[in-house]
């Protein structure tokens, strides 16, 4: 079986920067309170009318260019998001339209913060199996249009930002590129981090009562998420290493989902590696859920933090609960 590798990466971030000071004008919070709890100092918000598909398309174009390809070379699209432009159809078809690629398959993935890694595993399987030569994987989010900017919503609202990242996956020599992917879920914890409305289990799916109760805003049990994240992140990273006969010392860099700086620091401690070896950019962008890993990956590539032959581990934990890792020989 042939291998699969990442041929190019790209990212797209809205130009509008929203600082912690900006949020203090909307809710009862402070820069110190936000930084101490999350490590976030600023995040990006889209302009009105921009959705996750448009952001994803911009990131996709950058990734396709970096791979030395054209949109016509893309044979399949995987779009990961928890903030699609519309309830249906999925946003992947809008990317296909905007890129001008005729009638290729477009698959949307809904596993929240782990969405990009779930999508990457799909691309890996398609390429390794010989079904496609060039698969585009996108993680894109627009959170800013669905947050509660009152003091009641501050615990969640201060965390999230908008952005998109993408990667093109193509063939590799066996033993190089994506070595393995490891995916997990535990649905009994789904209600600890979720958006309740609109919901097809409700009739009607949305009502004035739901809106008055704020059920259309995301809700999070922060302590629960933190406790599980700091356990699952190291666990799934070690799982990937063990599956490939590698150890922590072999890793060149870990690129985790950018959930919270305290989580990233705890993961570094649990792995016994310097915190500098676990990449973080959450200070600038906040938590962009499915977009955070491809954005961070593209930054690492651009900054020369990843070189040919490096052993790179991508890892994520999020709503569902879901968690995942991907081990790559760059």
Put simply, the count of helices is 11
Instruction: Identify the overall geometry.
Output: globular
* CATH H-level superfamily of the largest domain: Thiolase/Chalcone synthase
For the termini, the CA-CA separation is 18 Å
Following the backbone from N to C, one meets helices and strands in this order, namely EEHHEHEHEHEHEEEHEHEHHHEE
Q: How many individual β-strands?
A: 13
Low-confidence stretches: none
Q: Regarding quaternary structure, how should these chains be classified?
A: single chain
What portion of residues belong to β-strands?
A: 15-25%
SS-based structural class?
alpha/beta
Q: Class of the largest domain in CATH?
A: Alpha Beta
Might you state the CATH topology name of the largest domain?
Peroxisomal Thiolase, Chain A, domain 1
Number of domains: 2
Largest sheet: 5 strands, mixed
Give the helix proportion (percent range): 25-40%
Overall radius of gyration: 19 Å
